[in-house]
Specification:
This protein is of the alpha/beta class and about 210 residues long. Helices cover about 30% and strands about 15% of the residues.
Length: about 210
């Protein structure tokens, strides 16, 4: 697959050859679904907690005698049927995270990249950095490339100044080429990728296994 490389001014500069195994593979909707589901599950905090009848505050004394009062039988005020009593089968702190096979995750990433590339939602731009780290300098460049909508920026490395410049842009998300996120890539309206990052992805995801 051949894609255009754009300058920071939004002008076409040259062509770049992308690996069809990465950017032109057969799309697996199942792999995408399971990868996104896995990432969302791993994000869950799992701190919800309720108290059982043995943990709530209250006396263990029988409220009234068993027979002769006209009331229903009652053993203790901590009973779940009483106001202020324990919760039956309520949530407890737990870890919702789990792992999926590496091959499935790789297939999901390649499927999403191929999906975006076929839909012309993937743009490759020349390598650049924001030495000042100022948001306004990055905004000037982005205006020439993509509209103000949910966008994923794939970096060639951990460029701290570039990340700092885009920190205050609510619709922009940064990802490193070797730490992609299926959820962000799939739901991003556009994907911007540095030229070097595209070259590294050619090798990173074309490796078998």
């Amino acid at each position: 697959m051949v894609k255009k490389v754009f300058s920071v001014k939004g002008q076409e500069m040259k062509d770049i050859e992308l690996n069809d195994d990465v950017f032109g593979c057969e799309i697996s909707e199942g792999a995408i679904y399971y990868a996104i589901k896995n990432e969302l599950a791993n994000r869950r905090v799992g701190t919800a907690s309720t108290k059982t009848r043995g943990e709530v505050r209250g006396s263990t004394q029988k409220p009234w005698r068993q027979k002769g009062t006209g009331h229903a039988r009652a053993g203790r005020r901590r009973s779940p049927v009483w106001v202020g009593g324990g919760i039956v089968f309520g949530p407890k702190p737990r870890d919702f995270g789990y792992k999926i096979p590496k091959k499935m995750k790789r297939l999901a990433m390649k499927s999403i990249l191929s999906l975006k590339a076929k839909g012309d939602k993937l743009k490759i731009i020349e390598d650049f950095s924001i030495e000042s780290g100022k948001t306004k300098d990055l905004v000037k460049i982005l205006k020439n490339i993509v509209p103000d909508e949910r966008t994923v920026f794939v970096l060639k490395d951990d460029d701290k100044m570039l990340r700092r410049a885009g920190h205050n842009i609510p619709w922009l998300k940064f990802l490193s080429y070797n730490r992609l996120c299926a959820h962000e890539l799939f739901y991003g309206k556009n994907i911007i990728m540095l030229e070097t990052a595209a070259g590294k992805l050619n090798d990173f995801y074309s490796v078998k296994g």
